[in-house]
Design goal:
Elements: H1 2-21, H2 27-30, H3 33-54, H4 62-84, H5 88-91, H6 101-136
Length: 137
């Protein structure tokens, strides 16, 4: 689960930068947003890695890893709420796609967590398939 904690901020920042680079907003409106996202991701990474190390023995099953991903998303949204003063997920549906900084905050996190979820499910499926093949021998 620690590797997923490392992948999450990298993917989120990557998708956020892709989203912002494709936006039609002026540079002054989006100039400081990568710094804000970086600070939020550092805070979330610190909390998430601490929780992962504390509950390392419980985070072995796929269900527990998925719960850990959901907690990471809520940590991200709560930290964004604390830093910006509003829930960015709720504000993300108010503007158009190309001018939506709130959407970039939330949806970059959702996309990266979806990719991590797919990786966890693929790894779990391969592990189960390997156990079935070993059991048949």
């Amino acid at each position: 689960m620690i590797i997923y904690c490392l992948i999450y901020p990298i993917l989120t920042m990557t998708f956020f930068m892709i989203w912002i680079s494709n936006s039609t907003l002026a540079g002054g409106e989006i100039g400081m947003t990568p710094i804000l996202v970086g600070i939020v991701l550092l805070i979330v990474f610190g909390i998430e890695i601490s929780l992962t190390l504390i509950f390392k023995k419980r985070l072995t099953r796929t269900r527990n890893k998925i719960i850990g991903l959901i907690i990471a998303f809520f940590l991200y949204e709560l930290t964004m709420w604390f830093m910006s003063g509003s829930f960015v997920l709720l504000e993300s549906f108010q503007e158009s796609f190309s001018e939506n900084i709130s959407g970039a905050y939330s949806f970059s996190s959702i996309i990266s967590l979806t990719i991590i979820l797919i990786l966890i499910l693929i790894k779990s499926g391969l592990k189960n398939k390997k156990n079935v093949l070993q059991h048949r021998l």
